[in-house]
Amino acid sequence: MTSSALRPAVPLIVIIIAGCIVAAIGNGVRTSFGLFTLPMTSDLGLSREGWGMAMAIQNLAWGIAQPFAGAFADRVGTARTVAAGAAVYALGVVLMAFSPNAGIMTLTGGVITGVGIAVCSFSVVMAAFGRAVPAEKRSLIFGVATAASSFGQFAFAPISQGFINAFGWQTALIYLGAMLLLIIPLSFALRGRSERTAGQVDMPFMQALSRAWGHGSYRLLVIGFFVCGFHLAFINVHMPAYLVQCGLSPEVGSWTIAVIGLFNVVGSLSAGYLGGRVPKQILLASIYFLRAVAIGLFMLFPVTEITAYTFAAAMGLLWLSTVPPTAGLVSVFFGPRYMGMLYGVAFFSHQLGSFMGVWLGGVAFDLTGHYDLVWYLGILLGLGSAALHLPINDRTAPAFALKPA
Questions:
Q1: Dihedrals phi, psi of 358, to nearest 5 degrees
Q2: CATH number of the domain that 358 lies in?
Q3: 405 lies in a domain?
Q4: Mean pLDDT calculated for residue range 21-38
Q5: Does residue 199 belong to any structural domain of this protein?
Q6: pTM score, whole prediction
Q7: CA angle, corner 307, sides to 303 and 311, nearest 5?
Q8: CB contact at 8 A, 106 and 56
Q9: How many domains does the chain have?
């Protein structure tokens, strides 16, 4: 069979709307965890490193589980995968409310929540979009999905802070867990699984992974994606506490995260649009370079509400704008057949970066009383990732193209 689309009974617009809402809810809850840093560490007596380790393990568990989640969705279908992931994700978030120490928090907020995020993440949703959308429109639709994910960050930051202020952090986590269950009925619209497409070889998944890793441009893409995770996770988890340390209110921290999400709606849509018109590797190199510049300028000026919101707006434009061209390059290299797994492998690298960003942020704060070392490291990594993307060749990997008869 050579069809690459979802079941025709599901209109494309329904697939896109349902997938975007799933992405918004899943990412919105996840990106609000940084707002819980101060109340939870204070009430539970956790060190900043202990809390950071739990969140770092969450990102690592997410990254480890992502290729398997993608492969599972490719094999058995997106709907069942996303629904199961939402249930696990909700369970992990609710159990966080009843975690009395760093060890239990690492299990609930780290391992369980991280696996749940992976199995219902927008990476799995984008694999569904990849097989349902014509190749020439994939970059734009990936941008739409990423923008929806970012809108969830914008919407859930004030919602989560409002829950914390009104009900306390424990009840807030329970409410967020309940909201995640809305993903389960939405997942029905994403039913279907990947099929072999015309012009591509068919092979076992492990053989596909081995051949993909032998493609030099894919290796560069995977390594560079590490830096994206480092930036995002460090800022998501530690930025609110950093701003409070600089004399600003917790509400400024929550609105800073919200502003990042709002501006990333624009950034993601722009990246999706540009990804179909300029070389994706050049777009990625530019994004990482501009991130380094934005962080450098933020470190040069005193931290005020104005500079915090300005930095948030700049980073928002560059936040998940790496995702559409990265996913687009994976699709160009290997086609949609193996995208769930092979984008999942790239995302594992992203989550290794997330682990390091969150964990090093906590370690740096406990050792020095500030986050400056990690901010400066973020600048260097941004410049390095920009350089890594320049040699990437945006053509189909030879090992995945059918040889002429």
A1: -70, -45
A2: 1.20.1250.20
A3: no
A4: 89
A5: no
A6: 0.75
A7: 115
A8: no
A9: 1
